Amino acid sequence: MYGIGGARITVHDTLAFAAPVTVLSEWRSISLRVTFRREPVGWRIYSQEVISTGPPELGMAGLGEEYVALMERCASANLTWVQRSLRANPPNGGSRRLRRDALLRLDEPLHLLSAPRLRPIQDFLTSNIDSALAQMRRERVTEGATIWKLYNHGWVIRTPNHTWAHDFCEGQEPAVMTDAQIDGILDQVEALFLSHWHGDHSSPPVMKRAIARGIPVLTSSLPPNSEWIAELHRGFGDSTGSLRGITLVQPGGQSEVRGIRYHAYPGHQGDLTNNVFTVIADGMTFMQTGDQSNDDDFAWIDQVKDQYDADVLLPNVWTTNLSRVIRGVRPRVVIPGHENELGHNFEHREPYAQAFEKLEEERDVEWHVLAWGERVHVSAR
After folding, report:
1. Closest CA to 372 of 93, 133, 188, 92
2. What would the mean pLDDT of 60-82 be, rounded to a whole number?
3. Rounded distance between C-alpha atoms, residue 243 and residue 232, angstroms
4. Domain match, 30 and 73 both
5. Alpha carbons 55 and 33: distance in angstroms, whole number
6. To the nearest whole number, what is the mean pLDDT of the chain?
7. What is the DSSP code string of 143-160?
């Protein structure tokens, strides 16, 4: 949507110049200098130059810079309290009531239209990932498993002899992890499992860095005519047409990578293949659902408990009928993910309130709701 109200327009013969012209999207406000050229049928846009970008509120009538500054101050105060409360009350200890209050408070700034562009939210992600990375570097697991939640349905899991990651994505621009943080996390893992080809689950920058380190990347089959195909073959293609360093795991596929066993259940998000990876290491079984959502897949979901004694289920919080998924898998522990995905339209960022609403009904399973960068330890059976 273009807005030229307040723009200064200068005309020189067959050319006209307008600035600043505001382009407003759901993600940002862009200030442009637009050049128009007169043609027989009228004036047409000839070129445009970006002057600046900022939160979408900057381009909305009645808001502007003062409103953005107010959002920054409110978000900063909110997140300072949230971070202090969560660190004083970690998932394996402290007050569950205070944790709940803090996570519900976190819903507010993360549902602002411009959340990814607010400095306090960027700092919150950076600080929490720094904390998680420091823990990964020093933590030695002697029994059970430690699980770190990254951004946003991304996880690092460590057992006594193995460490791997699921759906590791750096974040939503400009609220992203630094290159040093991405490298630091990848230095901890032996393998990277990616459920499907969406940018909030499969990140080319993360994949490239993983492959450069010789870390196996296992993911679902490529969707036909996907925009990913050309980019992947430019970055990872070889002379045979294969993708170097990437294993495309067919639905139902089972194998082992570096001593880590896996089974890719044939999940779906709409028409898109979404591998639901079940990983077995050091006598423990973990299932991460990616964006699993189709009703038809309950034909196999209902039977998972008959195939595996699952220890941990990592579902997307908005998956279809979470209670039925839990009954079908029958895990000991449930840890939901994908709350407040900043890459979703703000009205579709599923809040932590939704996670609590669903899980508080589950009386027969242990569950934990985590913020970015938090960890929880799950004991062995």
Report:
1. 133
2. 91
3. 7
4. no
5. 18
6. 92
7. SSEEEEE-SSS-EEEE-S
Is residue 19 over pLDDT 80? Answer: yes
Query: In the chain, what is the straight-line distance between the N-terminal and C-terminal CA atoms, in Å?
Result: 57
Q: Are residues 37 and 172 in the same domain?
A: no
pLDDT at 380: 96
Peptide bond just before 152 cis, omega within 30 deg: yes
Of the pLDDT bands very low, low, confident and very high (cuts 50, 70, 90), residue 268 is very high
The whole domain housing 45 covers 2-54
DSSP helix/strand/coil, 115: helix
Shared domain check, 265 and 360: yes
Q: State the Cα–Cα distance between residues 251 and 231, nearest whole angstrom.
A: 23
Distance CA 170, CA 125 (A): 10
Q: Both 37 and 90 in a single domain?
A: no
| Contact (Cβ atoms closer than 8 angstroms) between residue 290 and residue 195 | yes
Q: Are residues 248 and 305 in the same domain?
A: yes
Regarding whether 280 and 360 lie in a shared domain, the answer is yes
Task: Show the tokens assigned to 231.
Answer: 């980019």
Where is 217: in which H helix or E strand?
strand 217-220
Provide the number of structural domains found in the chain.
2
Confirm whether 60 is domain-assigned.
no
Sequence letter at residue 38: R
- What average pLDDT does this structure show over 129-152? 98
Residues 282 and 370 in one domain: yes
DSSP helix/strand/coil, 228:
helix
Work out the number of other CB atoms within 10 angstroms of the CB of residue 135.
Answer: 16
Helix (H) or strand (E) holding 274: strand 272-281
Residues 254 and 142 in one domain: yes
Domain final position from 54, 75, 97: 54
Instruction: Quote the pTM value.
Output: 0.88
- Residue 281 within any structural domain of the chain: yes
Q: What is the DSSP string of 55-100?
A: -GGGGSTT-SHHHHHHHHHHHHHHHHHHHHHHHHS-TTSS-HHHHH
Candidates 20, 26, 21; CA nearest to 57 is 26
Distance of CA 181 to the CA centre of its chain: 15
Residue 128: CATH number of its domain: 3.60.15.10
